[in-house]
Amino acid sequence: MNYEEDFNMATKKGIDVSIHQGKIDWSKVKGNVSFVILRAGFGDALAYPKQIDSTFEYNYKGCKDNGIPCGVYWYSYANSVESAKKEAKACLSVIKGKKFEYPIYFDLEESAQLSRGKTFCDSIVKAFCSEIENAGYYA
What are the tens digits of pLDDT across the range 111-121? Predict the structure, then answer.
């Protein structure tokens, strides 16, 4: 798939979902959205399974069972390039073996990150996305 050419987002309706939306009835979502972006998790320490979104597997299966194209986002707390790379590795371990029709996104919105400026934010985005793309995914 050529993402740059195929994603005319102006004509598509999508949603992002995580544990915060509760248990979703995917059969009711089918036909009402063009795509879904699933939160796979957050942060970089997979030693703490609570960092994996507890609804990710359920939501991924719900999308696949109902023919809803999906992608993933990883919520970031990275405070360095190295931390962003660790987050990418954590994300890759969670999504291993899964197929996505949409990209893997780096969710950067923490004020502690944004307050460090564009150069810092660019560096962690590039670090995360490079790791994801080196693993064969589109970020």
Answer: 999 999 999 99
